[in-house]
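[Discussion] Sanity-checking designs against the backbone

I'm trying to build intuition for which residues belong where. Below is a structure token string of 757 positions. I'd appreciate it if someone posts a full sequence so I can compare it with mine line by line.
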């Protein structure tokens, strides 16, 4: 039995690459020092894999920022506005990744998007009619050589041509198919060059094949691969898919002259079924993704070996592999000093997953699986009853009825009652929740955590910040106020820490984009709320003003989506447990005089299944009810808001209305307000606050600019339904620009009010 991995985290066990790159950005170190750090990380990763006997060690899975952007550079698909700056290659690359503002010019970064159903973001390549695709770089060759020189035979990995063309954004008339010929030629040439250097296998990653494919998509895929495979030279080509199954093109895949086919048996619901139905071709190697590359639990060897045994009915040529790149899990448990062994023994991060592959190999090679000590140990671990079951929570969520998920009276009646209660002006102004988390806030929190600042002093510090924030909002003239969220480090971590059932790590960072990493909490047991989490802050803030103060909570779907979920109970069950806890908080806020409560579902959209056929059953059918459960118990006069970070919900617009919030705010400014047409066409019922300016940039929008955005919104949205707000929280912004922007926002809303009443 042989083992393979698809890719390894590149940020470094202690985020060395992040720190080096950020130093480079600040011009504190030169390119050579950054390069040295990068090289150390790569060689260290190879050594780890070698030590675990991994047979197919990936190279070129490294990236300074993102491998889709690397591919764009490799193929010469770099917009002129970056090459024109006249910077060196590395700086041109970073200019495209992060934008450039300096003596050579002023350009924004390329767009960024979520990488399939993960929390990783890739840079969206831009292709216009002048783009000339050709082999324009040597990174995969260089990295192959670097490893070979260090004595490690690797399998270079590349983002595949189909996925690259599907992810690119086309600015001119040309579309993916128009670039197919040149793209195939470039990949063919590259594979040949790798083969000439001595590479035995080349891995082409094609996660786009697990999405719904049209007949044209299938044609594009087949034509690309026919050309590339005809030119592959001495190397063997592995077509690697992940994040799902390839039900639309499996038959085509097995008919191609590929040497290896990588399938995902973790997320690919139909992967086994496809092989059962169509078989697996002789002479090709099956790379079986059986070790979950996305979650942090120990592999269940019994289950995995069951899959391998099933596959052996169709082929003997099997390599055991991860379900996707290990990029999506933290590096290692080695640096977790605070988690006890009781917990840790259930976890496997990237390094530990290498160990699991080694063990699976050993068990399978031993010939007698059942009596292998490693196997016995693993099955014992998986049959252990884990602490953390809460019978009360289980009983409550099991007993839910439709009535628990339905808020009464219906929307229109509530709307009337709330209009009378709040008598807000036309186009009420508000913000999304957080105010700038300035360095004083961060250092106070740090001091509190290390014990340097007492709880009393910390709390009075936070209260001062809240008071200043309320005063500022009153001065600016906003209509619905917020307390500023100063007590929160992060909108999920904060609630995770307040709730029972979550575990936290110290160093378990996962790359989110570029040099940014996140440290997701782990859903360990049943979730419950021991005590109120936000009530005193909101009540204090409300005591300072006569204007309505929004209570601020994070919704169940977002908390779950930004954590490592359990695998021993369903996502649905976890979501309802979290919903129950948040619901208790909602009711407490209401009972304590908070009249408007916002429940953020920033991440609801991003875990929408990749295939349309799975949307409802696998996700929306529980995600939307879980949200409804959070607020179904409030009085008609309590106004429920929600917020979403992306406005890419055109396809699920009716589900968004079904969340049955009274008001929704969302990002719209960057997407050119295109969502407005969708709202109009669908007669969207919920009141809406499409963000009138982009908070991701330090720019201060002028009053006129905001007024224009409002006017445009009014052509699609009835005036009485429209709210005016920025498009996300202000946490990452500076104080001065925030005040200036919000003043302009209020002036613009007032001007619109005068014109429309
Ligand atoms: N209420 C949160 C904030 O303002 C929402 C953040 C988000 O949508 N990502 O920070
Ligand atoms: Zn947001």
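Best answer:
Here's mine. Compare freely.
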């Amino acid at each position: 039995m042989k083992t393979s991995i698809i890719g390894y985290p590149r940020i470094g066990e202690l985020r060395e690459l992040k720190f080096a790159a950020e130093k480079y950005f600040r011009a504190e170190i030169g390119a050579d020092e950054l390069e040295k750090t990068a090289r150390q990380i790569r060689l260290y990763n190879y050594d780890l894999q070698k030590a675990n006997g991994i047979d197919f060690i990936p190279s070129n899975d490294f990236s300074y920022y993102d491998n889709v952007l690397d591919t764009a550079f490799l193929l010469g698909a770099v917009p002129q506005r970056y090459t024109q700056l006249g910077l060196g290659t590395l700086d041109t690359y970073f200019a495209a990744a992060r934008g450039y503002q300096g003596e050579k010019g002023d350009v924004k970064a390329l767009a960024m998007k979520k990488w399939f159903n993960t929390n990783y973001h890739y840079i969206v390549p831009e292709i216009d009619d002048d783009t000339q695709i050709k082999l324009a770089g040597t990174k995969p060759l260089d990295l192959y050589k670097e490893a070979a020189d260090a004595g490690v035979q690797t399998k270079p990995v590349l983002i595949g041509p189909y996925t690259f063309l599907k992810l690119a954004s086309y600015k001119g008339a040309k579309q993916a198919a128009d670039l197919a010929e040149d793209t195939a030629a470039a990949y063919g040439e590259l594979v040949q060059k790798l083969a000439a250097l001595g590479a035995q296998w080349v891995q082409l990653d094609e996660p786009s094949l697990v999405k719904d494919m049209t007949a044209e998509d299938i044609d594009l895929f087949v034509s690309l691969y026919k050309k590339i495979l005809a030119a592959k030279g001495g190397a063997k080509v592995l077509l690697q898919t992940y994040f799902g199954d390839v039900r639309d093109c499996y038959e085509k895949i097995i008919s191609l002259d590929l040497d290896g086919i990588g399938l995902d048996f973790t997320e690919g619901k139909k992967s086994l079924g496809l092989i059962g139905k169509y078989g697996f071709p002789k002479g090709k190697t099956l790379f079986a993704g059986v070790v979950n590359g996305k979650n942090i639990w120990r592999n269940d060897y019994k289950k995995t070996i069951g899959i391998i045994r099933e596959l052996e009915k169709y082929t003997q040529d099997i390599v055991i592999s991860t379900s996707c790149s290990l990029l999506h899990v933290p590096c290692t448990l080695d640096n977790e000093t605070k988690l006890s062994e009781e917990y840790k023994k259930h976890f496997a991060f990237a390094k530990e997953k290498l160990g699991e592959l080694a063990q699976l190999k050993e068990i399978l090679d031993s010939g007698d699986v059942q009596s292998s000590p490693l196997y016995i140990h693993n099955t014992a671990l998986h049959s252990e009853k884990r602490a953390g079951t809460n019978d009360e929570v289980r009983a409550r969520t099991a007993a839910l009825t439709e009535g628990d998920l339905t808020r009464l009276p219906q929307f229109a009646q509530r709307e009337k009652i709330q209009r009378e209660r709040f008598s807000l002006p036309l186009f009420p102004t508000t913000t999304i929740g957080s105010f700038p988390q300035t360095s004083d806030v961060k250092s106070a929190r740090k001091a509190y955590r290390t014990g340097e600042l007492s709880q009393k002093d910390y709390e009075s510090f936070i209260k001062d910040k809240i008071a200043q924030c309320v005063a500022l909002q009153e001065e600016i003239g906003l209509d619905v106020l917020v307390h500023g969220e100063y007590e929160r480090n992060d909108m999920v971590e904060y609630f995770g820490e307040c709730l029972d059932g979550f575990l936290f790590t110290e160093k378990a960072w996962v790359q989110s984009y570029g040099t940014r990493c996140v440290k997701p909490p782990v859903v360990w047991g049943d979730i419950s709320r021991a005590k109120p989490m936000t009530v005193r802050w909101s009540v204090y803030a409300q005591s300072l003003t006569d204007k309505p103060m929004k209570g601020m909570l994070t919704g169940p779907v977002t908390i779950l989506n930004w954590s490592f979920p359990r695998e021993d109970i369903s996502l649905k069950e976890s979501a309802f447990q979290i919903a129950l806890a948040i619901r208790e908080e909602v009711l407490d806020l209401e009972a304590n005089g908070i009249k408007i409560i916002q429940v953020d579902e920033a991440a609801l959209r991003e875990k929408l299944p990749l295939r349309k056929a799975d949307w409802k059953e696998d996700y929306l059918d529980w995600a939307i009810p879980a949200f409804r459960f959070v607020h179904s118990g409030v009085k008609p006069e309590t106004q429920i808001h929600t917020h979403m970070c992306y406005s890419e919900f055109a396809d699920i617009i009716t589900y968004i209305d079904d969340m049955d919030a009274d008001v929704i705010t969302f990002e719209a400014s960057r997407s050119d307000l295109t969502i407005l047409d969708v709202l109009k066409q669908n007669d969207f019922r919920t009141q809406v606050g499409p963000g009138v300016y982009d908070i991701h940039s330090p720019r201060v929008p002028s009053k006129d600019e905001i007024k224009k955005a409002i006017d445009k919104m009014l052509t699609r949205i009835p005036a009485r339904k429209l709210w005016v707000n920025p498009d996300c929280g202000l946490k990452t912004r500076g104080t001065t620009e925030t005040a200036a922007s919000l003043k302009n926002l209020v002036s613009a809303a007032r001007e619109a009010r005068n014109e429309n009443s």
